[in-house]
Amino acid sequence: MFPGPATASSAQFRVIALGDERPILVTSANQPVDVIWEPPLALEPGVSRIRVGTAQVKGLPSDTEFVVRALQNGAEAGRAQVRTLPSQLSTPGSEFRMFLASCFCRLNPRSRNARDLFDRLFGVHGTPHLKVWCGDQVYLDSPATFFMKHWDLSHAEIDASHLDHYLRTWSDEYLGRPLARGANIFAPDDHEYWNNAPFPNVVVPGLHDEFRRGHWQKTAGRLMQAFQGIPEYLASPIRIPPVSLLVLDTRSARKLEDDPIDFLKPSDLALFRNWVASLKNTGPGILVLGQPIFLGKGASLLKPRLLEDFSLADYEQFGEFLRILGSAERDILILSGDVHFSRAAQMRLPNGHSIYEVINSPLALVVGLGRSTPDEATGFKKIPGVGALGSAKAETDSKFKSNADSAIVLGISQSGLHMNVNVELWASEASTGPQMRHSFKLL
Prior knowledge:
Number of domains: 2
Order of helices and strands: EEEEEEEEEHEHHHEHEEHEHEEEEEEE
Shape: globular
Number of helices: 7
Number of strands: 21
Distance between the termini: 37 Å
CATH superfamily of the largest domain: Alkaline phosphatase D (PhoD)
CATH topology of the largest domain: Purple Acid Phosphatase, chain A, domain 2
Mean pLDDT: 94
């Protein structure tokens, strides 16, 4: 059980139940909490049955912690703790606190360090208002050595492998404890499916078979929706006045095309356009993406791309996406992951406003890869159709770059017309404090 998104007056809780189990939820005062149970997830015969239950608790006070317990046969089987959002940040002393992470491979022997890292963060910062997971929460295509040897997996074997990845990752041995404390939102990326999805690659040769690939993708999408709650909270922004936060799925709408066109479906692009326009009358924006924007096109050594990943810059739609972003009349902070390094960067727009980007990756590096070198932020000169934005320069904070397994803490508070943003990077290896700090102001 873990919290989904929260508001200033409500909290959502998700329960994953195996077989015919149906835990009962109660508050810390033993008041019952109604759970809406979905039908069993449609997986292949012989694969373990799971059900998802959702509970919504309303009428809570703002910026307050709330606990729900799961009871099984009268005994406590788990608990989840959430902190409702502040009603507004203009109240003196009010702060919106987030934890940011991405890219967690539980097969990395050091992946258990993440559990202890979050315990340290909770000890210093308490329960965050929001934990932002920016993609690759699971690596369904890992270990690569297995899938490179087994090309002919049956549908049932695919379903069992995917489900096992989620159940283990969501267990208390790995991310179960971190997930259970503080509201969670998730943005998917490729390893929620497979490396560089939807394009087949050398990691899982069996996916060159379109029928096997189609089933793999369908099951991955179902489990992503069950365990991560995607896409149910992508339809509208989360508001912490004057800040507005929007999550976009830039992965699931991609199609297998010789010339990649779209990474957002039309309704999501329209949502993004309306959200950017709305910031003029509300305040700064926070945008959560599965991939960074200050990143150039991927290398193309082999065609189709069997070795190299597509970035957002590889897609024709990126030009339109940037034109919308460049029209913002407020500052926007982008939170992202994917690239196996952490970095902070800024771009001053021609209209005087700024785009800030904070990346955190990885939480636990995928097995079989060496550490990445943090790249400098890239501008948009080579992206067609972006207009004046193409001449804007991206600047990297040279003192805020890391390739260590880590998570990031962000604190946002209001000072006059500005929002102060303080950023801390905490390495997963045992430490008593942050290794790096970065700060800026949003207008």
